[in-house]
Amino acid sequence: MARGRLQQEIKKRHPFPSAEEEVMLNLMRTSDRFQTSIGRLFRKYGLTPSQYNVLRILRGEGKPLPCLEIADRLIAEVPGITGLLDRLEAGGLIVRERSREDRRVVFAAITPKGTDLVGQLDEPLEQQQKRLLGHLSRAELGELNRLLEKARESLLDDD
Fold this sequence. Notes:
The structure is a single chain. This protein is mainly alpha-helical. The chain has a domain at 43-132: Winged helix-like DNA-binding domain superfamily/Winged helix DNA-binding domain (Arc Repressor Mutant, subunit A), CATH 1.10.10.10. The protein contains 7 helices and 3 strands. A 3-stranded antiparallel β-sheet has the order 1-3-2. The radius of gyration is 19 Å and the shape is globular. The protein starts with a helix and ends in a 7-residue tail after the last helix.
């Protein structure tokens, strides 16, 4: 049996013991390569992927959000949302304000500077996404989305 591309890339001599292992390693390798590529783009603008994600969420919402709500919406979990927001606030990209109704709740809002920075990334990010995935047809992208969502179903009980 011919070795698959992943098997060749990682120079694995023997076949994978299971299809699940091959798929898991393929997902991890692809994710790592995509994150590295996108991370380079964000670094050119002085951002980490997590910082961009926060700004993207706040711009999309169009109003302040509780910090814990932002944490729930992040694509990748971060260990310390407070530190992440501290760095964005120090850069003048967001502002935070304690709720008047419940002093335990802190809201974050994107600043005009943050909105401008995310806007500068729109076109380069779209081009990067097309470079990474543009060779797939619309149907293939739809199927890939469906399969990835189906794969995550096994995690629903973990949340």
